[in-house]
Amino acid sequence: MGGDDMDLTTGIVFGEDYYGDEVNELAVASFNYVKQDITDVKKRYMSLGFHLHEMEMYRYHEELGYDNFYECIEKNFHMDKSAVSRVIAVWNEFCSKDDSNSKKMWVDDKYEKYSYSQLVEMLPLKEKERFKVNADMTVSQIRNYKRSLKEKAKEQKSLTDALNTLDTLVQTSKKKKSVATSQSVPEKKVLPYERGCITGKSPSGTCVCCGCGETVECCADCEIDCNGRCGWIEDKEPVITQPELPVMKNMTQREDFINSYKSWNIWCKNEYTEETFYRYDLPDGYAIVVKNYPYYIEWTKEESETEEYYLLDSGYRHFADCKTNMTVLKEHLKNMNKK
Predict the structure, then answer these.
(1) Contact call for residues 111 and 130 (beta carbons, < 8 A)
(2) Strand partners, 269
(3) Pairing of strands 103-107, 302-312
(4) Can you give the pTM of this predicted structure?
(5) Per-residue pLDDT tens digits for 130-165
């Protein structure tokens, strides 16, 4: 920069790694684009997402003395990493694209009537699910719609499981009857209550098992929790399943996987602080935990939500010590695939 030129670095909060050297003009320009977008963020959130993505991709934050992109933005613009990730995600998902699929810095025409907060809520929805969200809906209505989708999915799964269980019982019963009728001399079936307890847990030695259509010998082997279930049998521990770990070939796919955390199992909740912890157990013994909680955006006067990220190993002592960021999580997933 010449001595007669206006100093465009004025107002930049430099990081610890900056030693007063001349700053790359492209890095300064990128910083100022972000600064301009934030001054009118309600209208320019799409270009803000574009410029934040550009700044991170070309690592301009390093020119300003920061090793970590999110630290640079937080120090200069008071946006935490969750807010930055959301803005970039909204741009990435809802921006306009040309015929070569090149992403522009403005919103796609079909989403131009939606607000930033509405688009944030629509991020986890599938394309066909977004068709039922219109620009007149409030954030609360969109959240209720997402809850209804989850409840519908749970009901469908419960119905499918019940039908599969019933079909299994019917087929098993048919097989047993077929075997019984094919025998020349029918063998008398000893019912559980005639036979007595086979587990040794009943103090009186009696058995109350109904046999569930002659499919089980003891309540301990029965999957149906009926009213006549034996009171001396301990309840089985529920089997917790999680979505299958997808094949991730690049950092974008790894970030998409982490951002889909709401499809993971809920590890625990804190009703007082409105925090929900989602957990995914990795095959290398580590676990990713995402803490989600709502907050109020003062500069947009809107309700939103944010996340914090944790990477747990098998020998961690304190949960707070495992706090990390999106970049570290993506690198861990990348290195895990190499093992």
Answers:
(1) no
(2) 276
(3) unpaired
(4) 0.46
(5) 888 988 999 999 999 889 888 888 888 888 887 888
